[in-house]
Amino acid sequence: MSTSEPDKLMIKADKMTKLTLTRWNADWRGATDLYEQAAVAYRRANDYEKAKIAFEKASKGQEMLSSPWDAAKHMESAASLAKDLKKWNEVADFYRRASELYNECSRAQPASDALMKGARALEETAPEEAIKLYTDACVLLEEDGKEQMAFDLYRAATSLYIKLEKYNDAASFLLRLGLAADKCNATNSQCKAYLGAIIVYLYAHDIEQAEKCYNDCAEINAFQGSDQNRCAVKLLTAYSEADVEEIKRVAQSSTITHLDHAIIKLARKLPTGDVTARNEASKEQEEPLDENDLT
């Protein structure tokens, strides 16, 4: 097909969708077929901008034909081309639209996958938007009772929060993963998530929050007898005793080695603050012994 052929197809298709004095009804079926042909031809010719536009119009055509699944597929193709063209705003918009179209088909998994693809494409250039996409992708699966399919999404969002140094958000997402794992009876993933959250708080040198997080998690039966629980106890005990060498030793343990890479990296850097200062402050706050009080 010559380079002018897809241009002709687009012009013909556009005419078929416009109402005139002699055309009272748009021919969306015929136009959509032409848009699809043009999109493929443009892409083969590496004319990504025109291919993107053609896929957008093909998606609109499939919508008009009450075929949201095919419309979603074309919108994903447009999103992929927008990524190649580095049009990041369009990447987010197109993948979101694709997700909405899949949702119209009651297909939570592909709807979530579309958002995930958008998030991955935007991690470097628009991390805040990427996190929103990851979060929305998780929600779709949660609402459909498919939490186990969202584990990688929770982890990806957590890693991105850590890169942005938003440690409270990272820990919260790990706890969210723990809750999802609990619903799926995925005990190992659940316990890893809880230990990960504690480590994130310790890395942020929020020892008080780390202890509170541990106390909350320790009430959960699945966590109580786990290796991750024992590891957390050792870490927090070392902090309370201001034992820097023990903190470093525990951070090298096999239990932590089996956590996600982003969490391992944080653990290897513990402690990040002065643990002795907190220990000394707590001692000063202790009530002094009254030698005259023998009770």
TrEMBL record:
It comes from the Eukaryota. This is Uncharacterized protein. It comes from Melastoma candidum. The lineage of its organism: Eukaryota, Viridiplantae, Streptophyta, Embryophyta, Tracheophyta.
